[in-house]
Amino acid sequence: MNIPFSPPFIDQAVIDEVLDSLRTNWITSGPKVKALEYELLNLTGSKATVCVNSWTSGAIMMLKWFGVGDGDEVIVPAYSYCATALCVLHCGAIPVMVDILDDFTIDPVMVKSKITSKTKAIIGVDIAGLPCNYNELREIVNDPAIKSIFKPVTAKQSELGRILLMSDAAHSIGATYEGLPAAQKCDVTIFSFHAVKNITTAEGGCICLNLPPPFDNQEEYSFLKIFSLNGQNKDAFAKSKGANWRYDILFKGFKMNMPDICAAIGLAQIRQYSNTLLPLRKNIFLKYCAAFKSYDWFIEPTGKDEIREGSYHLFPLRIKGITEAERDQIIESLVNWGVIVNVHFIPMPMLTYFKSIGYAIENYPNSYKQFACEISLPIYPQLSDPEVDFIIESVIGAVHQVVEINKLVKVLS
Ligand SMILES: *Cc1c(COP(=O)(O)O)cnc(C)c1O
User: Fold this and answer.
1) 364 with 254, same domain?
2) For the chain, what is the domain count?
C-alpha cells in the first residue's frame, strides 16, 4: 500500500464550487469569501470572521493591529511551527518562548512566570487540534496584578487594557471548550487553511474576533478588510459594480486578502465538515487508540477531556522510552512499507535560524522530550478501513522491530 500523509479533500462538491467561481468570471475576493466568512461565523459563533491569505498573514496583521512593535514581548510555546514566532519577529517584537505540558499545549505556569511590563500578547497553540488551557490563560491576562503592569502605548492597547490573548488555531477548526466553539475563548483566534489542514483553501486563513467591550467587532471587521487590501476603502468587487471606480487609500495596509477561487474549495468542504469530515477524522483517531491501547509503549494522545474536545487534526503517536534516533528508525521502516508519516513539530529552538538568534532547546526540556518520541500518523476523511488497518499493523511491526533489535544490540554489546 501507498498511503500519503495528508492529501487535501477534493470531491465533486469542491470541484463544482471552484468551477462556479471560474464560470462567473469572478476569481478574486468577492461572494465566495463572504460566504466562507459566513460559514465560519456560524461554525465558531464568533463576533466577526475575516478571511486572509494565510495564518501567517493573519497573525502579522493582528499583532500590527494591536500595535505590537519594537521592544515588545509576545509569549509563545517553543513547540510549534515557525510561523508562531516569525509573525512576532516580523513586527520587531521578541517571541518569549516557554515550555509545554505533556498534552503539547503551552504551560500556563511558565507563561505567568515570563510576563513583564513589555508583554503585549500571548499566543497559545492548539497542537493537533487540542485547545490550550484557555480558562487559565484568561485568568492570567485578567489578573489585576498583571493588568497593573501592562503598559498600553496604542489606542487599541488602551481600549483592551490588558495583554491580548491569541490562539494559533491553525489545527483546531471545529474544536470545543466547555461545549462551546473554542474560538470564543480568545480575543483573536486564527485558523490556517493551508493544504494540509482540516479545511483548506490551498493557502488561506481566517481571523475570528471575539473582542470584549468596548470594542465593536463589526467596526474592527470593516477595518481589517481594508487593512488586508492595501488600506483601500473599496474592494475590486465593489468597484466592478457600475460607476464606482474612484477609491482612496486610507492608511498603509497589507495585501493579504483571500481570493474567491481559493475560498470556493474551503466553502464546499466546510458545508460537510461538522456532519461528515470531522466525525470521520474522530473515528480514525479512536480506532488508533483502541488498536494501540494494549501495548505498553503507547502514550495515548488527548483527543478529548472533561472540558475540551479537539479537532483530530493530527494523531500524535508517542512511544514510551525511545530515543530520537529510534524514533527516526521507526519512521524509516514505516516509509519503506508505504506509510508516509511526519513529526509535529521540531521545536523552534532546534532550527538553525532560531539557534542563531539565541534560542537553545536545553531551556525547553519537555518540548524536546515530546518531540523525540513523536510520530504523526495519517488521519484524514479519505482513509479507508483497510488503509487504517494497514497503518496500525505497520506501526506495531515497526515499533517492535526497532525496539527489539535495539534491545538485542544492548545485550550483545
Ligand atoms: C500550518 C501552521 C501555521 C501556518 O499556517 P499558514 O496558513 O501556512 O501561514 C501556523 N501555526 C501552526 C501550528 C501550523 O500548523
Assistant:
1) no
2) 2
Structural domain of 89 = 12-264
What is the rounded CA–CA span in Å between residue 311 and residue 127?
Answer: 10
Report how far ligand 1's centroid is from the alpha carbon of 276 (Å): 24
| 389 CA → ligand 1 middle, Å | 29
In CATH, what number is assigned to the domain containing residue 242? Answer: 3.40.640.10
Contact between 161 and 204 under an 8 Å Cβ cutoff? The reply is no
Query: Does 345 reside within a domain?
Result: yes
Residue that terminates a domain, selected from 245, 264, 283: 264
Taking only the tens place, the pLDDT of each residue in 37-88 is 999 999 999 999 999 999 999 999 999 999 999 999 999 999 999 999 999 9
- Looking up residue 401, the CATH number of its domain turns out to be 3.90.1150.10
Global pTM? 0.97
* 217/341 same-domain check: no
Residues 232 and 308 occupy one common structural domain: no
Distance between Cα 350 and ligand 1 center (Å): 18
Query: Which DSSP category does 350 fall into?
Result: G
Measure 77 CA to ligand 1 centroid, in angstroms: 14
pLDDT digits (tens, 9 = 90+) for 173-229: 999 999 999 999 999 999 999 999 999 999 999 999 999 999 999 999 999 999 999
Rounded to whole angstroms, the Cα distance separating 271 from 340 reads 28
Q: Are residues 236 and 281 in the same domain?
A: no
Residue 190 and residue 59 in contact, taking contact as beta carbons nearer than 8 Å: yes
Pocket of ligand 1 (CB under 6 A): 54-56, 80-81, 83-84, 125, 168, 170-171, 192, 194, 205
Q: Whose CA is closest to atom 5 on ligand 1?
A: 55
As a whole number of angstroms, the distance between CA 249 and CA 234 comes to: 9
Among 201, 251, 384, 396, residue whose Cα is nearest residue 317: 396
d(CA 216, CA 219): 5
